[in-house]
Amino acid sequence: MTTAQLLALDTIVLALVAGCWLGGGVAAVLAGRDRSPRTARIAAGLVVAALVCTALRVALTVGLAGAGWWFAADKLLLALPLVVVPGLVAAVISLPRLVRLAPGGAAVAGPILIAGYGGLGGVAAALTVSYPVSPVAAGVITGLVAGASVPTWRTLSGHPPSRRWSAAGGTAVLCFAVVWAGGAVWSSRLPDRLNLGAHHGSGAVAVPGHSGTGAPPGRQVSVTDLRESAATERPARSFTLTARPADITLASGRVVRAWTFDGRVPGPTVRVRQGELVEVRLRNQMPDLAVTLHWHGYHVPAGDDGVAGVTQDAVRPGGEFVYRFRATDPGSYWYHSHDMANPAVRMGLFGMFVVDPVDPVDPVDPAGTGGAAGDKDATGRTALSDHTVVLHTLGVAGTVAVDDQAPADGLARLRVAPGTPVRLRVAATDNVPRTLGLSGVPYRLTAVDGRDLTRPGRLDDRRLRLAAGGRYDLTFTMPSRPVLLSVDGRDDLGLLMTGGEGAAPPPARGPVLDITSYGQAAPPSTGPFDREITWVLDRRFALLDGVPMLAHTVNGRVWPDIETPVVREGQLIKITVVNRGRDTHPMHPHGHHVLVLSRNGRPVTTGPLWMDTLDVGPGEVWEVALRADNPGIWMSHCHDLSHASLGMTFHLAYEGVTTPFDAGRASGNHPE
Ligand code: C2O
Ligand code: CU
């Protein structure tokens, strides 16, 4: 069984445990009162069922512990003791007496009911406790179970607590609850001003003799100084992107109201050549929305990362901001607004960013053995047919936008001469992953998140799962028959490429490629690590800005209370990402790629797998390595941006880096 299945089963069993013990307890009370053998038998039956379910929960927990302590700690330390201890007493004392039809007294019904309270405590733990186990939550739940058990026991043994005691106890509990909840709500409110450059008490120490931020040891540098310094050099490429609302006409004629760059969704592709100094002027003509430009996956200097309240103030209506950075790395990336990113991206404030390599290798035929028959370019190489393909839901319509054409809410079409090498740069810009299929031709997954793989093998009819926010480059040589890039297995959503004759092939149906074992490379050997960080992802009740909700948590906490790792330039950091929940979390650290080391304990054999958006499924454990080579304050968050806005946002800070910008209620900046 997979960890995800164990977790799902555990959720069901958890409810059964509480239900059977409580039902058994009530039946035992009734049996004691009316001395009915039938009720005693029902009670005995429920106790047996409860024991079976409890044993099953113990077994599931052992299984989960095998997958990692993160999955089992809350159960072993809290939920199970609350039910197992009274449950064992019930099995030894209550059950035999129920079976002998001698059900009277506290000794029979008491342990069963108390096990029921313990079972309820287990349900509460599942809803409120994550990893690491919070001692406060554990104490409150244990206290509630004990607080309910004592009067129950006394009542069953014929000494119910006096009215005075009940009233006093009730009032005390109520007062405590009101004060505690009120305090928690108050302290969880987002402060008016929140400065992410202040890493007090997070263990930052200046290291003598080394500081790559340009600041002497112990000194500080602001993100605003971490910008492309060659201010005198004229940028090789300049772009202007204007944010404004517009009506977008989809290929079917349907019109969607959108927030756009330059009146288009996706916004104009920013395409440059490797090594060029790029300048992008952002103008905001939205009537009442602040915007920024974040370069997703690109290692820009921190000051150009475009995160409102961290690396700049959000650009207000009528304002502008100029981004400037050198396009050092080639590949497929995208840009999007990063102030209230969830609605902004959903509504259309994004576009592709492509950096062409200085010295392109033929992606279809890296060894250069020839064989292609399309047009030759000036260098005699067969001209590459190179396209961006953006998958996004506009309004309710799934769309496919090819290059800078209007998005198709169906099949986009391209004509490609047979024999032409093709590169498709596919980006998934929604909050959910997409399943891609390429049929009609064997192909290669040439690049992941902008990074070329060394020896991508040939794929036939295989499907690919692309993370929300991730990019895959697919390459192949155009055959004489049509080729179909299908989205989520549909034959009516995707890209149909035609050159010669023939009907469209059906969508690919083959197995989904495991991108962590795409090749036979030796597993990456990195380390020793200077630092190890764990992100345990979960969903539980939490207070977010004073509002109780089922939030998305990291290490049991929500934005802005998730602990900030403070790293030092040059450090090699191992990050273990654990998904305890039932949602997929495409985790995205800004400003860095991470080298994927292993998934679910299996070392990666893809030669090398660098990613900026990790598709961490339920129950999965990813180990990745991050080289701290880009000083700054870097957001890290789930790229299901609805999760990011419900708590799953945090950041990674470099020692000594400060920011003059604030997030928070009064700041007007909403990085999450
Ligand atoms: Cu595309 Cu903060 O992310
Ligand atoms: Cu998520």
Q: Any overview of this molecule?
A:
This protein has four domains: 3-157; 205-219 and 522-658, Cupredoxins -  blue copper proteins (Immunoglobulin-like), CATH 2.60.40.420; 222-359, Immunoglobulin-like; 367-513, Immunoglobulin-like, CATH 2.60.40. Helix 1 packs antiparallel against helix 2, helix 2 packs antiparallel against helix 3 and helix 3 (69-99) packs antiparallel against helix 4. The model is unreliable at 200-215 and 367-374 (pLDDT under 50). Strand 27 and strand 28 (602-603) form a beta hairpin. By secondary structure, the protein is an alpha+beta fold. It is 26% helix and 29% strand. It is globular, with a radius of gyration of 29 Å. The structure holds CU-O-CU linkage (C2O) and copper (II) ion (CU).
Low-confidence stretches: 200-215, 367-374
In total, the number of domains comes to 4
Shape: globular
Helix tally equals 8
Oligomer category: single chain
The distinct ligands, each listed once, are: CU-O-CU linkage, copper (II) ion
Estimated helix fraction: 25-40%
Strand content: 25-35%
Radius of gyration: 29 Å
Termini separation: 36 Å
How would you state the average pLDDT, rounded? 92
Largest sheet: 7 strands, mixed
SS elements, strand count: 34
Q: Which class of secondary structure composition applies to the elements?
A: alpha+beta
Outline of the structure:
With 672 residues, this protein is of the alpha+beta class.
List keywords for this structure.
672 residues, alpha+beta, Immunoglobulin-like, 4 domains, seven-stranded mixed beta sheet, 8 helices, globular, binds CU-O-CU linkage, binds copper (II) ion
